[in-house]
Amino acid sequence: MKVGFRKPSLKKRLAARTSVKRHVRHSLGVKAPRGYGWLTNPKKAAYNRVYSRTTFGLADLLKWLFGGKW
């Protein structure tokens, strides 16, 4: 498990936004409401919760430095 700063990756960000799986899911409207990750995939939901609490990204760092809302 990673702890600390998340190194941004433009390649992974672009791949996630242009994936076929994402496009199909959004166009068909087959999405679970927010918070339903515990029902659809509990193991992944637990991992994501721990990961998001132990790491921080560039936006989080800027928010912490300047104290503003982003």
Structure description:
Helices cover 61% and strands 6% of the residues. It has helices spanning 10-17, 20-28, 37-40, 42-54, 58-66; strands at residues 4-5, 55-56. It has a two-stranded parallel ribbon with strand order 1-2. The chain is extended, with a radius of gyration of 15 Å. The two termini are 27 Å apart. The mean pLDDT is 87.
- Mind telling me the C-alpha Rg? 15 Å
Shape, principal axes of CA atoms: extended
User: How far is the N terminus from the C terminus?
Assistant: 27 Å
**Helical content (DSSP H or I, runs of 4+):** 55-70%
Reported for the largest beta sheet, the result is: 2 strands, parallel
Low-confidence stretches: none
Q: Provide the number of structural domains.
A: 1
Number of helices: 5
Topology order in helix (H) and strand (E) letters: EHHHHEH
Percentage of residues in DSSP E strands: 5-15%
The class by helix and strand makeup works out as mainly alpha
Strand tally, please? 2
Spatial order of strands in the largest sheet: 1-2
Mean pLDDT: 87
List keywords for this structure.
6% strand, single chain, extended, two-stranded parallel ribbon, 2 strands, mainly alpha, 70 residues
Q: How is this fold's topology laid out?
A:
Layout: E1 4-5, H1 10-17, H2 20-28, H3 37-40, H4 42-54, E2 55-56, H5 58-66
Parallel strand pairs: 1-2
Please outline what is shown here.
This protein has one domain (about 10-65). The chain is mainly α. The chain has a two-stranded parallel sheet with strand order 1-2.
